[in-house]
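Example 171, ligand 4'-phosphopantetheine.
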Amino acid sequence: MGSGVWQARGVQSSLAVVPGSFDPVTYGHQDVILRARALFGRVIVGVAANQGKAPLFGLEARLTLLHAALADEPNIEIQAVPGLLAEFCRQVGATAIVKGLRGGADLDHEQPMAVVNRELAGVETVFLPAAAAWGYVSSSIVKDVARNGGDVSKYVAPPVAEALRAALGGR
Ligand code: PNS
C-alpha cells in the first residue's frame, strides 16, 4: 500500500470466508483477502469448485499456491470447501462471505449467489470494490497471458508465476 492510504480498522473480531476457485490466486485476490482481514479480524480462504469452470490447477495445487502466496500471514487460514459454500460458512461460524467486485459483470454474477447463500445459511455477503491496481486482473487473463508466453509477474506472486510457467510454458 502506498503511504497516505487509509487503513480500515476492524469493526469487531469476527470471521469472514473469502471463497473462490483461485485457479490460480492473483494479487487481486490477495488484496481482497488482506482487506477482509482488516475488517473482520480473521479470514478463512475457502477454495471451492466452480461448476462452470474446468480448473488448470488441481485442488491441492491451488491450496499450495495460496499458502505460498500468503506466506503465513497471521489470522488467515486456507481450507478446501468440499461442497456447499453456505454449509461451510455455517460449520465454521462465519459472520460473512467477502468477495471482490471488479465491475458490473462481477456483480451480475455474484448477486444471485449472495442471495442464495443467505437463504441457505443466513450468511451475508459483503462486496469490496477491487483496488484500482487490480481492477482488470483475473485468473483467466493471467492464464491466457502465461499460455501465450507473456510475463505474469505483475499480477501474481513469484511461486504462482513459477507454477504457471511449469504448467503452461512461457517466460
Ligand atoms: O472464483 P470464482 O470461480 O468466481 O468462485 C465461485 C465459487 C467457487 C465461490 C462458487 O462457485 C461456489 O460457491 N462454489 C461452491 C459450491 C456452492 O456453494 N454453490 C452454490 C453457490 S450459490
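Summary: The first strand starts at residue 14 and ends at 20.
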